[in-house]
Here is the input.
Amino acid sequence: MRLQRRKRLDVLVPIATMGDIAFLLIIFFILATTMIREANLDVTPAASRDIDKQQLKPISITMDTEGLIYLQGDEKDVGTLESDLTRMLDSRPEKIVTVRIDKDIEFEQFKPVLMAVSKAGGTPNLTGTKIEE
Amino acid sequence: MQLKRKKKLELDINVGSFADIAFLLIIFFILTTTFIRPTGRQLEIPTSTNDPEQKEQKQLTITMVPGKIYYGEEAKVLSIAEVREALERQNFAEKSEDDRIVVVESRNNVPYEEWFQVVTAIGKAGGVLGLIEEGKNQQEGTAEGPTAGGTTSGEGAP
Here is the structure.
């Protein structure tokens, strides 16, 4: 008896749309990425046991090792910080401000920053490094 | 005379490698992206001026000088771990908002890390941080930390 040879199935993966999918993914990544403007600033974060993971908020204030104040990455004077913050927070429903201060900055220097946040109607989210228990 | 017709140049953009480029870009983005979720604590900071009437209210006060924490009216010197325990014992969750205020008075030279540890402990225990701002007719220095305990030796009550 002669057996019929099985026909080989031609399996083709359609890859013509791979490029489109890839570009859609790139566009998604670009739109979903939040660029951190203060990444280049020299700040050693303070450590504490009593902190938890927080959401990254769009408004941030940084005080670097030299005590310079940056609002959204732009250097600011402590005198104008409150008015600038008030203007920013007025247009936003969320009033949380991420505050990053170098661990060695003294109270005399960082107190006006916290006062400015409070007076501008913001809620400071003090960030630092978590000490694991 | 018959002119020779110019040959039309066929212009083709080679798009065959577009997908490869796109995937390389994706791999680059994936590898260089850092997903940051900062660790921290949100604190409500109601501001007030340091007037004597407010002092009469029985608010818990923590006084800080560099390297030392004075806790409560008795101004006991406590470590940060002891402060944490003492704050937990306050049961802020069962108290009204006014009674949850913990006033932190600090010397001007207290480093941020020490202050940060105390205020985050207050926040975690459910307390509300009260920062004292000097009143306009207040003498300079009266709102800033202990008057007697601020010596470098740190002996004595604030």
The longest strand of chain B covers residues 60-65.
